[in-house]
Design goal:
The chain contains seven helices and ten strands. By secondary structure, it is of the alpha/beta class. The chain has one domain (3-65, 79-221): P-loop containing nucleotide triphosphate hydrolases (Rossmann fold, 3-Layer(aba) Sandwich). The strands form two sheets. A six-stranded mixed β-sheet has the order 6-7-8-3-9-10, sandwiched between helices. Strands 2-1-4-5 form a four-stranded antiparallel β-sheet, covered by helices on one side. Helix 3 (101-112) runs parallel beside helix 5. The protein is globular, with a radius of gyration of 17 Å. The two termini are 22 Å apart. Bound molecules: adenosine-5'-triphosphate and magnesium ion. Adenosine-5'-triphosphate is lined by residues 12, 14, 21, 39, 41-47, 91. Residues 45-46, 91, 167 line the site of magnesium ion.
Length: 222
């Protein structure tokens, strides 16, 4: 199994009392699978993605990638593993607006090490596929929402991760652009990647292997 979550719990303190966000959540996701997650605002979808990515630590429970347990405490290799194996597309793009498209997209590769010819060629190829190649030297700040979303996707792909996590990747886009973005994500599934997409869009649910509703801290099949 590429990704497995077992009995994940997470609480946050809110206004003096603890609020349980995730409560014994389980999930399995394998290569070539695209799964969607929906659920009310504040139910914990972003928290879930952040836990998988190792950005937020769970209070309890285990995360396995390729059947290897991810240690959350004192694990210096965590961020390195995340950088290599997981591509994250954030709810807000979290791009550097004053930097160029290329500089944004290369960032995770730069963190990993030096950028070789192969990585450069790969980036040009994905920018081409995403139809933003001509903007490669432009400052991200001047791009439209849909174009920024494509830059965020390219950045998530640069290290060729096996798992892609996308947090409402088309929330602010018109229907045509969202369908295009979804087509791109679906193509990644066909390349053998595993995708977990937070989305409320029904046409994306229809094209997902499974749709989960995050409710009462657990994922329920819709
Ligand atoms: N760092 C934090 N400290 C305290 N509470 C937090 C923190 N992060 C999230 N929360 C709370 O946890 C709950 C879940 O937040 P999360 O962002 O995961 O929800 P979500 O399902 O992604 O919502 P949305 O659909 O609005 O994006 C919310 O009540 C939020 O206020
Ligand atoms: Mg969210």
């Amino acid at each position: 199994m590429l990704l497995r979550l077992a009995d994940i719990r997470k609480e946050y303190a809110a206004a003096g009392h603890k609020k349980r966000i995730l409560d014994g959540l389980d999930l399995e996701l394998d290569r070539g699978q695209l799964v969607s997650v929906t659920g009310k605002s504040g139910c914990g979808k972003t928290t879930l993605l952040n836990i998988i990515a190792g950005i937020t630590y769970p209070d309890r429970g285990k995360v396995f990638i390729n059947d290897k347990k991810i240690g959350f405490l004192f694990d210096c290799s965590l961020s390195r593993r995340r950088n290599r194996e997981i591509g994250l597309i954030f709810q807000t793009f979290r791009l550097l607006d004053n930097e160029s498209v290329l500089s944004n997209v290369f960032l995770p590769a730069r963190i990993k090490g030096s950028i070789g010819k192969e990585t450069k060629e790969y980036v040009y190829e994905i920018l081409g596929k995403l139809r933003i190649y001509k903007y490669r030297k432009s400052r991200v700040g001047i791009l439209s929402g849909g174009q920024k979303q494509r830059v965020a996707i390219a950045r998530a792909l640069v290290n060729r991760p096996s798992i892609i996590l996308a947090d409402e990747p088309t929330a602010n886009l018109d229907k045509k652009t969202s369908v295009e973005i979804f087509d791109i994500l679906e193509e990644l599934k066909d390349e053998g990647k595993a995708l977990l997409i937070v989305t409320h869009k029904e046409y994306m649910h229809k094209r997902s292997l499974r749709v989960f509703n995050l409710e009462n801290g657990k994922l329920a099949v819709l």
